[in-house]
Structure formats: C-alpha cells, structure tokens
Amino acid sequence: MSERFRKWLDGGFEVYDLMPDAAEGYDVPIEKVEQKRQEINRQIDEDEKTKSFIRSTDKGFRKLYNIVAVISCVMLIGVLLYTVGNLPYYGKENPRASKVYTRYIEKGVEETGAINAVAGMILDYRAFDTLGESHVLFTALLCVMVLLGRDRKNMRRDYEDYYKIANDRYHDLYRDPILYRVGTVLIPAIFLFGMYVLLNGQNSPGGGFSGGAIMGAGLILMSAVFGFDRVDGFFTRRLFSWLSLVALAFYSFAKGYVFFMGANGLENHIPKGWPGTILSGGLILPLDIAVGLVVCCTMFGFYSLYRRGSIGGK
Fold first, then answer.
1. Domain coverage including residue 160
2. Which of the four, 34, 66, 92, 219, has the lowest number of CB atoms within 10 Å?
C-alpha cells in the first residue's frame, strides 16, 4: 500500500508526509489516506480564502491611503498658498513683525536676562523650536544607527576580519608623527574653546549649537589623531546614551515647567541673575549645556557610525 501511495499526484505530497505510519513499513488503509487527503485539501481551501481576504483588505487599504494622501496634500497646499497670499509685499513694512522684534530688542534683557538677543530668543521666547531641533538631531542619529550599526547579526566574521585589517592599514591616521604632535597641541585648545563658547552663549555669540559643534569636532579630531581606542576609553556607548537621554529629558521638563508656570503673567521663580555674568539668563545656561551635549554626541556619533559602524566600541 505504501508503494501505491508513495507519491500523491494531486498535490505533489508523498504518502510519508501524509501518513507517518507508512514510513515505518506498515500498510495504511485507503480510507485513512483519503481522509488525510481531504483534511489537507480543506486546509488549502482555508488558506486560499485567508489569502484572498488579505488581498482584498490590502487593496481597500491602499485605495483609502491614496485618497487620504491626496486630500492631505491638497489641504497642505491650500494652507501654504493662503499663508503666502497674506504675507506682506517685498519691501513693505509689516506692523506685526515690528512688534515682535521690538519686544525682543527692547525687553529681551529684562525678560530673559541674556545680553545675547539671539540666545534669549531661541532658548526663551522660542524654546520649543529649539527643543524640536534637538530631537530632530537625535532622531537622525538613531536612523543612521539603525542603518549603519554593526553587530553580530549583520556582520559576518570574515568581513569583520577584513574590515579590521583594512582599517589598520589604510584608514587610521594616528601613526602619522606630524598629525600626532599637532593634535597634541590643538585638541586641548579646541575643547577649551568649545566649552568657552558653550558657557558664554548668553553673553556673546555662541551657545549650545556652536559650542557643541566645536567639541564634537574635537572628538572627531582626537579619534583621528590618537585612534578610536583612546576615545573609547572615556567616551563609551553607555556614556553616550546617558548624555543624550539626560540632556533631552532635562530640556523637555525644564521648558515644560517654564511654559506652564510662566504663562499668562505667572512667575516661574527662576532667577535670571545679573546680565553679563556667567550665571545669568535663568535657564538659558543649562539649556545651552543640554543642547551642546546633544550636538556634540550627534556629530561624533555620525562620524563613528560612518567610520566603523558603532559608537563607543563594541
């Protein structure tokens, strides 16, 4: 009996697949085999119905998605055209805009405590915009990490060995004696200048973005001069994660508190300090530090991911 049903012509099944007893050399009754065949055909019919339902549902979802996308685009185009149509003509004075910048210039020092009007504007009046920009940087870094992150799951052993050999021979520059000596002198000065620009942003041109960019460039130059092993000794993956998390969380909660407690004339009880000193501007100085840490981590994170596929070593 097992020889007669050794292959199942209708569906291409073998009798050993249908009836395990046949593989052990036992004769299988034809009724039992026929029952098994009906069960398999019933399962195939159910699978086909499921696939047909999924195809029809997916087709309906695609139609709905296209309709919603077109409506959203038309609405967005209408809003943008309406906004552009209400903008003042080129060269024409805008009374509403004059109220805004007049407020920034005349009362900026009194209300923010910052001599640098730009710092007072982006970290006090428009602090939510800067918060969004910081999160955009962090999100971009996460996307690059997902795409270029190198680990055991997406890196074969032979390619990893080849990468290490090529990296040692051709890419690292820390063996260059001229670069080593110049970097030994410049790197401490770069970090010191970056910290000065970061901490003095409320009093002079600078702040979180520019100071963080300078310190990030210092980390990149340090890794090129001394190698990633030297940088990984203190700038680990754990430190990178905690710095980014604490900086963004502090910015979010701090400005959330200020906008809830300082709105509609309510006092937020945060001293602004004496204008011109380093401890002035209220929350502007700690917010500058938070933004600078995010920018610094993002810059070095981009370089490290593009360079070797990881941050802070393995």
1. 115-308
2. 92
Amino acid type, 61: F
Burial of 186 (0-12, 13-18, 19+ CB in 10 A): middle
Question: Can you state the angle between helices 127-148 and 284-308, rounded to 10 degrees?
Answer: 20
For the chain, what is the domain count?
2
- 2 domain residue, yes or no: no
d(CA 81, CA 221): 46
Same domain for 199 and 53, yes or no, is no
Q: Are 287 and 212 in contact (CB under 8 A)?
A: no
Which residues lie below 8 Å from residue 7, measured CB to CB, with a gap of 6+?
Answer: 13, 14, 15
**Residue 5 region by backbone torsions, left for phi larger than 0, else alpha for psi between -120 and 50, else beta:** alpha
Residues 119, 64 share a domain: no
Going residue by residue through the chain, which has 314 residues, state the pLDDT in tens, using 9 for 90 and above.
444 444 444 444 444 444 444 444 445 566 666 676 677 767 776 777 677 767 777 777 788 888 999 999 999 999 999 988 888 777 777 777 777 778 888 888 888 888 888 888 888 888 888 888 888 988 998 888 888 877 666 655 554 554 554 454 445 566 678 888 888 899 999 999 999 999 888 888 888 899 999 999 999 998 888 888 888 888 888 899 899 999 999 988 888 777 777 655 556 677 787 887 888 888 888 889 999 999 999 999 999 888 888 887 65
Runs of H (alpha helix) within 86-199: 95-112, 117-120, 127-148, 157-166, 177-199
Neighbours of 293 (CB within 10 A): 25
Q: CB–CB of 273/279 below 8 Å?
A: yes
